[in-house]
Amino acid sequence: MPGKGIEEVARDLGVEPADLVKLSSNENPHGPSPAAIEAAQSAAEGVHHYPKASHTDLTAAVAEEWDVTPEQVWVSPGADGSLDYVSRAVLEPGQAVLVPGPGFAYYSMSTRYHHGEVTTYELHEADGFQQDAATVLSAYDGQRVVYVTSPHNPTGTEFPHDELEELLGAVDDDTLVAVDEAYGEYTDQPSAATLLDDHDNLAVTRTFSKAYGLAGLRIGYALVPESWGAVYAQINTPFAANEVGLRAALAALEDDDHVEQSVETAAWAREYMAERLGVPTVDGAGNFLLAKIGGVDTEGTNVDADTPGAAVAAAAKRRGVIVRDTGSFGLPEHLRITCGTRAETRTAVETLNDVFAELDATAFDPDAAGPPDTAADGGDRSGESATDGPEATDGGETPQTEGDAS
Ligand SMILES: Cc1ncc(COP(=O)(O)O)c(C=O)c1O
Question: Domains in the chain, ordered, with CATH?
Answer without folding.
Answer: 6-32+256-392 (3.90.1150.10), 34-253 (3.40.640.10)
